[in-house]
Each structure stands twice: as C-alpha cells, then as structure tokens.
C-alpha cells in the first residue's frame, strides 16, 4: 500500500458542501446568501411570477375581450364518430357514459350530436342535444334519439 493508492472508505465522504459552519469552512458568514435583501433572510418565499419589484409579465400584457362564465360550451360528436364507435365495439346503445368510457368526452362535458358523416348502424343514442340533421339521420336507419 502506498500513498497514491489511498482513498476514503466506501460511504465515508459526502458530496454536499456544508454551509454556515464557520468562516474557516469557506462557506460561513453570509452562508452563500449574499448581503441584505429578502433572499438573505430566513423564511423568504417569493410569489409566483414575482420579478423583483418590476411590473410582472401578467400585468404588463394588455387584457381584452370578455369570457362569459355562464355560457355552456357543447362538445360536438359527429355521426361518423358514432359509426366508428358502434362498429368497433359492437354497440347498439350509445350513452353518455359509453362516450366517457371510450375517451371521446369528459365527465363534465355537454354533448351535442351533429350530422357530419354517415350512420349505417341502428343505434340508440343518448346525449344532451342533437342537431336536426343528426336526428333525421339516426331515425332514418332505425335508431332512436334520447335527450338527457
């Protein structure tokens, strides 16, 4: 064994530098926090989006328009999507729950069936609302329409 072969025992050294352990450690005094200011003090926590007193980005950007919180946004489902669903999973009854189960809509969505595409399967469809062309196409192939 020679001096150049020596190394510390397994697990005896730590890679993290210990701060605030006296001036002799090289990381004492201000403990790497610098001098004065909020960041040097204990308990410091900045707000989300805080830019050091500069006007934050979310307040600098102009706001315009209007978002109506009471408006109901429908999730459109077309006839071709219903046809794919019916043929792929051999469904005769398509309910709101089956649409949620197959990932087409969310649990809180309001579904409106629209008339794009062609429907050949005889299915019973349950949804919140239907367009006139969708009702006509569903009933033409012998299916039924149920409003929730």
TrEMBL record:
Residues 1-51 are annotated as: Disordered. Keywords: Ribonucleoprotein, Ribosomal protein, RNA-binding, rRNA-binding. The keyword Cell cycle does not apply. It comes from the Bacteria. Residues 76-145 form the Large ribosomal subunit protein uL15/eL18 domain. One of its GO terms (cellular component) is ribosome. Residues 33-44 have a biased composition (Basic residues). Residues 21-31 have a biased composition (Gly residues). Belongs to the universal ribosomal protein uL15 family. NCBIfam families: rplO_bact. Part of the 50S ribosomal subunit. Binds to the 23S rRNA. This is Large ribosomal subunit protein uL15.
